[in-house]
Design goal:
This protein has 618 residues and is an alpha+beta fold. The chain contains 26 helices and 17 strands. It folds into 5 domains: 97 residues, DNA Primase, Chain A; 122 residues, DNA primase, catalytic core, N-terminal domain (DNA primase DNAg catalytic core, N-terminal domain), CATH 3.90.980; 124 residues, Dna Topoisomerase Vi A Subunit, Chain: A, domain 2; 63 residues, Pheromone ER-1, CATH 1.20.50; 151 residues, Orthogonal Bundle (DNAb Helicase, Chain A). Strand 13, helix 11 and strand 14 form a beta-alpha-beta unit.
């Protein structure tokens, strides 16, 4: 496979803002001069420790240690090859790549081809919605209050009733049957390969970046023996447990809301109805129950490092809807945001509510929301006859564990009183039962001792050195600040002074290991030099180097950061000059003032004083 020219790889990276790429998947906010932060996409966390520095094109998580550039981010998040990551970003900025030996662009059969196939299928389905055969589909949309503009906004299309209409169209564009099978667009039967979606309305399902990764299709005709809704099967790019329909459209308003609010509905038409009614933060699961992976996706978009956000679940009032709400409740503790349930009058879903009562009724649904805990308590109580003592006691025992799960120590007493009023019981009795349930839930699990060796009998690897592990002394602080400034703003300070400062040995061994690599960098004005330097640092100090590059520099703005970096360089040089002067003063006491050695020492002392004055006055 031809290789992309290195000059083009570097050019694409320099033209790409890593903050934009990461920001499509993670809600980022300012974290100091030139730094952004959000919840890490590589591990589950509740407080943001993931930092991005667009100026140097680098990211680093202080929680799990993951770090890298825009290419490694795409490779880790989307599981693409290096070549595919470069090609994707080049296409994004309209840059024409060149390949070594004059080779043409390789024909990838991996993930990028699946993305391309889904995109082509989406275009095909949209075009088919305008045909005469799609009249039933257009009527279905119209009866639910969706006009042509709404269909276009959400990319709704139509899959023709034939067995291979879509397949013929895409193979004519160069896609193979194997690629269409891998994308879940066609199915393999006893009589061969055929279109998976036939005679159905089709909604494109997109990831958070807006790339089409699959489809949801609703049957329209009575002779269709398939399920009411048919989704893309699991593929290497479509994982239904991690996908939320409409998130690509909702993410901007979710991240900018005050408070940040996500509305979780049950279907594609419900998402459409909410957005058209003005509730533009609505999303829906795709053929599966709302679960832990969905929460991880939402939390990254919300950036919910505080309890100010809201997640509102809307469910049908029927038994299935009630059960769905309780399943969501079991995952409540994974959110930092407050969770609510909103059930429309008469159990209408948002689509029907909009049809019968208008847009204002859909927006008003948010005002009728109740806290998830209150909903769960009422659901538990509904199974008991509260007019009897036995019913009251049974309901208390059933609902007490729910109240015991409330983490907020200010909220729990309030819900104890709510439960007492619902039951008509003494609050003291309710509190005692809740405390008993809490003690039962908090019994410590047995922990096995940590072995001194691994399973192969080898000693455990040396833990990476981090900023938190460094001594809190003035000397270490100056060395740490010098390296932070060099990595982050070294390209903007006087290079001669920078080189002089970095030639001087550091006292702390971990910082010295990082300094050696930075000092050896051939060109500290080249874009991306600091990332290369970090990657060249030996273990166990590489993670420390990444933290030095990513930790927000203590300054009000970039001008102040550059000035502070230059000042740190001068202080490092002056520190070395003072140290050398003290050593020479000791040597002068041990030799004759009239000897050649004594005269040479005095000359060097004068030179040191002059050099020191030059750096202190500059």
């Amino acid at each position: 496979m031809p290789r992309i020219r290195q000059a083009d790889v570097d050019e694409v990276k320099s033209r790409t803002n890593i903050g934009d790429i990461v920001g499509e998947r993670v809600s980022l906010k300012s974290a100091g001069v030139g730094s952004l932060k959000g919840l890490c996409p590589f591990h589950d966390e509740k407080s943001p420790s993931f930092h991005v520095r667009p100026q140097v094109g680098y990211y680093h998580c202080f929680g799990c240690g993951e770090s890298g550039d825009v290419y490694s981010f795409l490779r880790e998040m989307d599981h693409v090859s290096f070549t595919e990551a470069v090609e994707r970003l080049a296409g994004r900025i309209g840059f024409t790549l060149h390949y070594e030996d004059g080779g043409s662009a390789p024909e990838n059969s991996g993930r990028s081809r699946l993305y391309a196939a889904n995109t082509a299928a989406a275009e095909f389905f949209r075009g088919q919605l305008l045909t005469a055969e799609a009249e039933t589909g257009r009527r279905f949309l119209g009866e639910r209050g969706f006009d042509a503009g709404a269909a276009a906004h959400f990319g709704v299309g139509y899959a023709p009733r034939g067995w291979e209409g879509m397949m013929k169209a895409l193979t004519a564009q160069g896609f193979t049957r194997d690629e269409l099978l891998a994308a879940g667009l066609v199915s393999q039967g006893q009589r061969g390969v055929y279109d998976r979606f036939r005679g159905r309305l089709v909604w494109p399902i997109r990831d958070v970046t807006g790339q089409t990764i699959g489809f949801g299709a609703r049957k329209l005709f009575d002779d269709d023996q398939g399920p009411k809704y048919l989704n893309t099967p699991e593929t290497i790019i479509y994982k239904k447990a991690q996908v939320l329909y409409g998130l690509d459209l909702a993410k901007r308003d979710i991240s900018r809301g005050d408070p940040k609010r996500v509305v979780v509905v049950e279907g594609y038409t419900d998402v459409m109805a909410c957005h058209l009614a003005g509730v533009t933060t609505a999303v829906a699961t795709c053929g599966t129950a709302f679960g832990a992976e969905h929460i991880k996706v939402l939390r990254r978009v919300m950036g919910d490092d505080s309890a100010a956000g809201e997640v509102v679940f809307t469910f049908d009032g029927d038994e299935a809807g009630q059960k769905a709400a309780l399943r969501a409740f079991t995952e409540d503790d994974r959110f930092n945001a407050q969770t609510f349930v909103a059930v429309a009058p008469n159990g209408l879903d948002p689509c029907d509510l909009r049809l019968q009562r208008g847009d204002a009724a859909v927006r008003g649904l948010m005002d009728a929301k109740v806290p998830m805990f209150e909903f769960a308590i009422d659901r538990k109580l509904g199974g008991f006859d509260l007019s009897t003592v036995e019913g009251q006691v049974g309901a208390l025992r059933a609902a007490a564990p729910i109240v015991a799960e409330i983490r907020d120590r200010l909220l729990r007493p309030g819900y104890e009183r709510v439960l007492a009023r619902r039951l008509g019981m003494d609050p003291t009795e309710v509190r005692s039962e809740v405390e008993r349930a809490a003690r039962g839930a908090s019994a410590p699990a047995r922990r096995d001792p940590v072995p001194a060796t691994n399973l192969e009998g080898e000693a455990p690897s040396i833990a990476p050195v981090t900023l938190a592990s460094l001594p809190r002394t003035a000397e270490v602080g100056m060395e740490r600040g010098t390296l932070m400034g060099a990595l982050q703003y070294g390209h903007q300070v006087d290079q001669e002074m920078l080189s002089r400062a970095l030639e001087l040995p550091f006292r702390h061994p971990a910082l010295e290991a990082v300094r050696e690599v930075i000092a050896a960098a051939p060109d500290r004005t080249r874009a991306g030099w600091s990332m290369d330097a970090v990657n060249a640092v030996r273990e166990p100090y590489r993670s420390l180097a990444g933290e030095l590059l990513m930790t927000p520099f203590p300054a009000k703005d970039e001008t102040g950061a550059v000035a502070s970096t230059a000042d740190l360089m001068r202080r490092m040089i002056v520190r070395h000059l003072d140290r050398e002067k003290n050593e020479l003063l000791g040597a002068v006491q041990r030799v004759s003032a009239e000897s050649d050695g004594g005269r040479a020492l005095r000359v060097r002392l004068r030179d040191l004083d002059a050099e020191r004055q030059r750096f202190t006055e500059s």
